[in-house]
């Protein structure tokens, strides 16, 4: 076996490795220019195979650094996984991306099964397993090609190993939330966490990988329902069935979301126990929304100058002071008395929900990987998730309109989405028993608080669409303008903040 050492990844080999990492889909700091790579540790995973995990620190030009996990293999033969060729101890060898090799994933699963400890140069990888773990026969292996923030492989259609690429010290919310829901609550609509691997060294605790039950035959809700609803929308005689199914989906999403929040709110652990919602929490949300909107309106001005579109919208909210006035008015109309914040999903939409055996399963609790662990684990109002799934339903219906050109659906979209929101909220409240201890019981106050999070989500979406998909601008622009116009028209005299 060839012993891979940090010095083997220096010089030209290190530069080639850095360039390789920079061009991967999972590389998160795409707006920064990587300048240096330092190997912090190399851990051999299998005494029979030259397969390793390298912990590397990537430095950016004047912008600090970030840690990454990179599975590597050394071989005498070149193949499609090769990163570069180099001289290893007098021999010409090939440095390869081990993630694409079945032997790497097998080593990770065997390590989990044995709850092994693998010592490196500066630290140790410790493997842990749960009661959900079952050993696969290792007959089939495939990689998931659609992910970006991590890299996953599936073994025997029964276990999925998720490799966390961008590493941050601290508890990993993806594993923490899945473990809490499946082990410490009655909520079963989460794939069972089978085990995980943690690197400990130099004062760091870095989660490298998590293994979960793979729901063979499942499909994400976005893919399933876009296909289903497009098919119905293309059949003019099925229009009422289409509307009924959209509303029914909203009800089911309200139920599963409320059930998840109920379970999260009663887990007996300080990391999950509800805490008082503070007015500062809402101020941060509104301030962030205003910043998004200011940037959006500046960008939209250039569109309006070219073809006149969006002039009416900009004319209603044209002055920066208007945004300040709106934010102050929204906050003045809110009371946080009696409200609480809990752990939430944080990035909740139809793509994070799987359909398996006629039921919903929620996945990917890791939040936004570029944010710190502290931010990703921060307690928030459950409205964060509720706003996310409401906005996702808007995108679903809008996407069907865009793809089919169904004029009747386009004409009735706003009325339909209003009904979806109302029925979803009603189902959510019924499923989230005791929600009044966390959220407002009064419907008007409930909706006012929800609008704060809808505005945050839709203003972020608007900025994204302006920069990436201009044809989709109207999808988030409509709710942004509705909330802003309602706020301007509402006047003063609301209940004060507490």
Q: What class would the helix/strand composition place it in?
A: alpha+beta
Average residue-wise pLDDT: 92
Helical segment count = 13
What form results from the Cα inertia axes?
Answer: globular
Number of domains: 2
CATH class of the largest domain: Alpha Beta
**If strands are numbered along the chain, what order do they take across the biggest sheet?**
6-7-12-13-10-9-8
> Architecture of the largest domain, CATH level 2?
Alpha-Beta Complex
CATH superfamily of the largest domain: Aminoglycoside phosphotransferase (APH), C-terminal lobe
Percent of residues in beta strands? 15-25%
Write structural notes for this entry.
By secondary structure, the chain is an alpha+beta fold. It has two domains: 6-213, no CATH class; 219-344 and 379-490, Aminoglycoside 3'-phosphotransferase, Chain: A, domain 2. 44% of the residues lie in helices and 22% in strands. It has helices at 11-22, 102-114, 173-184, 221-233, 239-265, 279-307, 311-316, 320-332, 373-376, 383-404, 407-431, 443-468, 474-490; strands spanning 34-46, 49-60, 65-75, 82-88, 91-97, 117-119, 124-129, 141-143, 150-155, 159-164, 166-167, 193-201, 204-213, 219-220, 275-276, 340-341, 353-356, 359-362. Strand 2 and strand 3 form a beta hairpin. Helix 6 (279-307) runs antiparallel to helix 8. It is globular and about 75 Å long. The termini are far apart. Mean pLDDT is 92; it is low at 492-498.
